[in-house]
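Journal club prep, shared notes

We agreed each person brings one worked example of a sequence with its structure written out as tokens. Mine is GNAT family N-acetyltransferase. I'm keeping it raw so we can talk through how to read the token line rather than staring at a rendered picture. Sequence first:
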Amino acid sequence: MSEAGIRLRPAGPADSRLLWELRNEDSVRRASFHPKAIPIEEHERWFARKMGDARFRAFVAVDPAGKDVGYVRFDLDGEEAEISVAIDKGERGKGYGLAAIRAGSERMLAEGPARRVIALVRRDNPASLAAFERAGYRAAGGKSLQGVEGIVLVFGDGG
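Then the structure, token by token:
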């Protein structure tokens, strides 16, 4: 359990719809560099492909009562893992995002081969920036994606 009382469990095929619903929630899309809604059929094809990819890890954040409250996922590229996180809109403000970021990032470094985790956060998203910084990430420059300015944050060595 983390400091917010959540635990992470590996996501499986049955979690496809949960991740889709979380990813397509309005405020999550607005905070994303890819804000377009994703049709369920497209997501299911993507998720099935990703579940078979050794460079992909996804975890569901579960609260103390056993309720799924969000996800944290990683795309591995050599010794780097890029993080993506979403918390159910009704569960925000409870520290679950911070806890999922920290627990997931620590797990990625402990399990390897990642030596650092990279987050790309929109510059106009101060809540996410603060959560990543409180989770131990350090700012490592800027990056524009899809014409949107972001901040690169790093957890682990090499940052």
